[in-house]
DNA sequence: TAGGCCATCTGGTCCT
DNA sequence: AGGACCAGATGGCCTA
């Protein structure tokens, strides 16, 4: 798996002592270094050694330019002549400037990645299974976000209920089994028969027909669907069709990596919402806005009593029952566990 | 212990 | 020249 040109920790001190400038650089890391960063000094050292191999120590730099034209590969073969301007000698001053540039660039790169991670965190918060303790991985967050948009589009386009089996199936499409468990658990719904490809196995776990098998999952509670999420979903009653939508997931979902139908038909709806400026959105940010579903439920579609937050989460049995003890006879507005059980048998 | 995920460093490339 | 972005490399942490 990982190649280890040098020991992860063992021979490090030897290498470190042979590189005088190394310690200096480590100590010259940004002053605002987080504890996390401090805990990763070994890693920084590793990085330095990596770069050292490429740049060479100061002693090596003096020789570096001389045999430029006759580079010989590890197997003795001649490497092609290096093109472009000849490398200038790395004088001490140049090296110092280079180091300073690198340190600055590293700091920028760190903050850039932090910004990216912050954005990912914000994305996690609006996912239907946000949990502070059970963070979705980056890749799973992106996949779920993609599915979420897709599923909400389907809700708007075809009137499919956000509580339907198909909705969960769409959310879980292509997700890992633990993430699928998380999503299904958060939605208080059972496993999907369609998620066997990547989402996991058949999904019926011993003890409860509605629970996902959850190998390796920590004890509950982990991700949970925020009350507002579910209430908004429950409140949302899109146009109801007599016949199931031809686009319904269970009747033929597009392949996971295939092109999805863009939510063109709903873009107008979304566009109606005045997006706050970055500043405003920061100020007004709420952990679980479920913006689109909320907006739709409160502005475009009739909202049931349970669909309003006024009643509070405890107003619905869904929020009184543990996910793991959800009785089979809980009736949803348009979806029941029995519904699910039959769907698992492929009768829908 | 292998594998997954992550943070960081780094050099290259493109753009201003 | 310098910054943003990217991908590769590396090592740490955690879990099955």
UniProtKB/TrEMBL annotation:
Bias type Basic residues, positions: 80-92
InterPro entries tied to this protein: bHLH_dom, bHLH_transcription_factors, HLH_DNA-bd_sf, NeuroD_DUF
One Gene Ontology term of the molecular function aspect: DNA-binding transcription factor activity, RNA polymerase II-specific
Signal peptide range: none
Regions of compositional bias (Acidic residues) in chain numbering: 22-34, 56-72
Gene3D superfamilies to which the protein is assigned, alphabetical: Helix-loop-helix DNA-binding domain (4.10.280.10)
Keywords attached to this entry: Developmental protein, Differentiation, DNA-binding, Neurogenesis, Nucleus, Transcription, Transcription regulation
Record GO cellular component, one term: nucleus
Gene Ontology annotations of biological process type: axon development; camera-type eye development; positive regulation of transcription by RNA polymerase II
Region of interest: Disordered: 19-109, 269-314
Biased composition (Basic and acidic residues): 276-285
CDD domains named in the record: bHLH_TS_NeuroD4_ATOH3
All residue ranges annotated as the BHLH domain in the record: 100-152
Presence of the UniProt keyword Transcription in the record: yes
PANTHER family: BASIC HELIX-LOOP-HELIX PROTEIN NEUROGENIN-RELATED, NEUROGENIC DIFFERENTIATION FACTOR 4
Subunit structure: Efficient DNA binding requires dimerization with another bHLH protein.
The name this protein goes by in its record: Neurogenic differentiation factor 4
UniProt source species: Parambassis ranga (Indian glassy fish)
């Amino acid at each position: 798996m990982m190649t280890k040109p040098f020991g992860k920790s063992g021979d490090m001190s030897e290498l470190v002592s042979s590189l005088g400038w190394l310690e200096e650089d480590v100590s010259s890391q940004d002053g605002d270094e987080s504890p996390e960063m401090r805990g990763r000094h070994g890693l920084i050292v590793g990085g330095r050694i990596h770069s050292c191999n490429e740049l060479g120590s100061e002693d090596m730099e003096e020789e570096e330019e001389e045999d430029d034209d006759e580079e010989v590969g590890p197997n003795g073969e001649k490497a092609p002549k290096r093109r472009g301007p000849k490398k200038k000698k790395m004088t001490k001053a140049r090296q110092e400037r280079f180091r300073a540039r690198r340190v600055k660039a590293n700091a920028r790169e760190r903050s850039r990645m932090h910004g990216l991670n912050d954005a990912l965190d914000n994305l996690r918060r609006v996912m239907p299974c946000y949990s502070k303790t059970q963070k979705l991985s980056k890749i799973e967050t992106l996949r779920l976000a993609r599915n979420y948009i897709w599923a909400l589009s389907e809700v708007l386009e075809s009137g499919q209920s956000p509580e339907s089996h198909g909705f969960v199936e769409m959310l879980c499409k292509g997700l890992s089994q633990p993430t699928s468990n998380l999503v299904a658990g958060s939605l208080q719904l059972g496993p999907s028969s369609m998620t066997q490809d990547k989402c996991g196995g058949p999904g019926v776990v011993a003890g409860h027909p509605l629970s996902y098998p959850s190998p390796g999952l920590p004890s509950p509670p982990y991700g949970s669907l925020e009350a507002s999420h579910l209430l908004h979903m429950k409140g949302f009653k899109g146009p109801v069709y007599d016949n199931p939508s031809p686009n319904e997931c269970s009747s033929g979902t597009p392949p996971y990596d295939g092109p999805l139908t863009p939510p063109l038909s709903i873009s107008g709806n979304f566009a109606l919402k005045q997006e706050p400026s970055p500043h405003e959105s920061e100020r007004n940010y709420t952990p679980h806005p479920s913006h689109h579903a909320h907006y739709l439920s409160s502005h475009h579609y009739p909202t049931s009593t349970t669909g309003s937050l006024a009643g509070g989460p405890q107003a619905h049995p869904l929020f009184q029952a543990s996910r793991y003890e959800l009785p089979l006879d809980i009736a949803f507005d348009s979806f029941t566990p029995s519904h699910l059980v039959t769907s698992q048998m492929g009768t829908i």
